[in-house]
Every structure is written in structure tokens, then in C-alpha cells.
């Protein structure tokens, strides 16, 4: 049996004092690909933020990549995030530096010191997302799909145990969405665990996987019908 990399029991997800989700029970096994779906405002992003400790877990139990979300201390949040790869809808690339230096910034911020090792790691992750020749480009010189590939490369820098992708295709056209999805599929097939929030049902039909739905302040598994 694959071991659990993320589990929540009776978890409550809050934005300040507002309860967004209640009684959340979920488990993600190592090496799996899991979708998180639901309408805008249903709590997908709040749940993601709780998982990477942007929002505190106030209620219930939660463990992610070996960290207890309930007892997590402020000083330990950077260590948690080093074991997570986080991909956002809006890329969040730094506009004033090229791709290589965007990635170098993250490595330095997470404690890397050796320039040669940083160069090698940057080349490795860019190669994984098919962007090896684009390191000298600035974000504004890249298409949306290319920027998202760089954002995925950035999420891979510290060899994360779990990738949290929050609407990674939300700003992309259908063809580019499929290309980005193929990259995520390859990363998953290489053994990485991915939890992806999306409202792109076409992708879910094309790449079926375990699907969790946020609805009515609850999270539950959706059984996909055979098409």
C-alpha cells in the first residue's frame, strides 16, 4: 500500500473567523494524482492555502509531508514549503529578472549556496518542462503557457514530495492547458504526488484521476462515470 502524504480528519477551513469548509476528511497517497474541483468560492483555494500554511488549521487534524498542520509553528513554515511545490494560476514570476534568475532567487531563498549546483538544478528543472533554451528570457517575452511551465519548473526546484497546483491552467487557452497538463502528467508518472485544483472539466475527462469536490462547505470524492 502506498503511504499517505496528506491527510485531514474533521478539519475546519477558515478565512479569519469565517468557516469555509467543515468536517473535511481526505487522504492523498504518495505518487497519486488528485483533482480538487468546485465552483468559484466553494473553498478550493482556501483549502490549498491551509495545506501550505497560509491559513492556519484551527479545527480537526491534518498532516502533510510529515508536518502536523495543527501544531505547526511559524518558524517551521519555510521548512514545510521546501517539501511542497506550489503552482499558482497567475504564475507569480518576478518581472525584473530572467527565467534563470527567477529560479536562482528561489534556490537562494531556500538555502542553496553553491553556484554550480544551482546552475545544474536550474538546467535540470527547465529540461523537465521543455524550457531548457528559455533561461535568458524575461517573463514578458514568454507566452502564458511558457510562463506556467516556468512556474512548474520553479515548483520542482527543491525536489518536493507533493505539488499543490491551484488552477494551473485557469489563465490558459484549451490547447495550452493540455500542454501544461501533459507536463504535470509526466511529473506525476516520474513518481511525484500532485493535488490540482481546477474547474476545467475537459481536462478531467481527458486525464481521469481521483476527484474531490468542494460543495456546500464539504469535501467529498466524486465517482467519475465511464464515458
TrEMBL record:
One GO CC term, this protein: plasma membrane
PROSITE patterns: ABC_TRANSPORTER_1, ABC_TRANSPORTER_2
Domain ABC transporter: 6-226
Domain of life: Bacteria
Keywords linked to the UniProt accession: ATP-binding, Nucleotide-binding
Molecular function per GO: ATP binding; ATP hydrolysis activity; transmembrane transporter activity
InterPro entries according to UniProt: AAA+_ATPase, ABC_transporter-like_ATP-bd, ABC_transporter-like_CS, ABC_transpr_LolD-like, P-loop_NTPase
Chain's role: Part of the ABC transporter FtsEX involved in cellular division. Important for assembly or stability of the septal ring.
Family note: Belongs to the ABC transporter superfamily.
Protein name: Cell division ATP-binding protein FtsE
Amino acid at each position: 500500500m502506498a503511504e499517505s502524504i496528506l491527510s485531514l480528519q474533521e478539519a475546519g477551513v477558515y478565512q479569519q473567523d469565517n468557516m469555509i469548509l467543515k468536517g473535511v476528511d481526505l487522504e492523498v497517497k504518495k505518487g497519486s494524482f488528485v483533482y480538487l474541483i468546485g465552483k468559484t468560492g466553494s473553498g478550493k483555494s482556501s483549502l490549498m492555502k491551509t495545506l501550505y500554511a497560509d491559513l492556519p488549521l484551527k479545527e480537526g487534524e491534518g498532516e502533510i509531508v510529515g508536518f502536523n498542520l495543527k501544531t505547526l509553528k511559524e518558524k517551521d513554515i519555510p521548512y514545510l514549503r521546501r517539501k511542497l511545490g506550489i503552482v499558482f494560476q497567475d504564475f507569480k514570476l518576478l518581472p525584473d529578472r530572467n527565467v534563470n534568475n527567477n529560479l536562482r532567487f528561489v534556490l537562494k531563498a531556500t538555502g542553496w549556496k553553491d553556484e554550480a549546483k544551482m546552475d545544474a538544478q536550474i538546467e535540470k528543472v527547465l529540461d523537465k518542462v521543455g524550457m531548457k533554451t528559455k533561461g535568458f528570457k524575461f517573463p514578458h517575452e514568454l507566452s502564458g503557457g511558457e510562463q506556467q511551465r516556468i512556474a512548474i519548473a520553479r515548483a520542482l526546484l527543491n525536489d518536493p514530495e507533493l505539488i499543490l497546483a491551484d488552477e494551473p491552467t485557469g489563465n490558459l487557452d484549451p490547447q495550452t492547458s493540455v500542454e501544461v497538463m501533459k507536463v504535470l502528467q509526466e511529473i506525476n508518472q516520474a513518481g511525484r504526488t500532485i493535488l490540482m485544483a481546477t474547474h476545467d472539466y475537459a481536462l478531467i475527462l481527458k486525464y481521469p484521476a481521483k476527484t474531490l469536490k468542494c460543495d456546500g462547505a464539504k469535501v467529498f470524492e466524486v465517482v467519475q462515470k465511464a464515458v
